[in-house]
Write a structure and sequence with these properties.
- With 132 residues, the protein is an all-alpha fold.
- The chain has a single domain (2-125), classed as Up-down Bundle (Four Helix Bundle (Hemerythrin (Met), subunit A)), CATH 1.20.120.
- The protein is 84% helix and 0% strand.
- The chain is built from 4 helices and no strands.
- It has helices at 2-29, 40-69, 72-95, 101-129.
- Helix 1 runs antiparallel to helix 2, helix 2 packs parallel to helix 4 and helix 3 (72-95) runs antiparallel to helix 4.
- It is elongated and about 65 Å long.
- The mean pLDDT is 97.
Length: 132
């Protein structure tokens, strides 16, 4: 599980970094807390952070569950794709929200793999254990 924990720690560090960037954008664009609107560029930073939080809810348990049925290396590889996707999403969304598709796709694809893989792995294990 060391490799999975490493990927998860990187995902959490990336999320914290996005939060720091939101804080910097608050200062740079004059959007005082608790406001979440007021400057379009600030709002882009904020949306990246919130979208990442939304995906982490599926990513974290997804990578753990997937790794129970498939190799850690495979799970970590998909986790790395997620991290790269989030990085691309961050840069592209802040620059131009219309250009976010590649980053979003690279972030969402591993999560879908985790969900589908876990469903298949769990169902297969259940049927093997129960003679189905």
């Amino acid at each position: 599980m060391d490799l999975i924990n490493l990927v998860l720690a990187l995902a959490l560090a990336q999320f914290i970094y996005f939060g720091v960037m939101v804080g910097r954008a608050r200062g740079k664009y004059g959007v005082a807390a608790p406001a979440t609107t007021g400057n379009e560029i600030f709002e882009r930073y904020f949306r990246v952070q919130m979208n990442t939080l939304e995906l982490l809810v599926a990513f974290v348990p997804g990578i753990y569950a997937f790794s129970q049925y498939y190799s850690q290396n495979t799970a970590a590889l998909f986790g790395a794709v997620y991290l790269i996707g989030r990085g691309i999403f961050f840069v592209s969304y802040v620059k131009d929200p219309k250009s976010r598709s590649l980053g979003f796709g690279l972030s969402m694809m591993p999560i879908l793999v985790f969900i589908i893989g876990t469903l298949y792995g769990a169902a297969s294990a259940y049927w093997r254990a129960h003679g189905g």
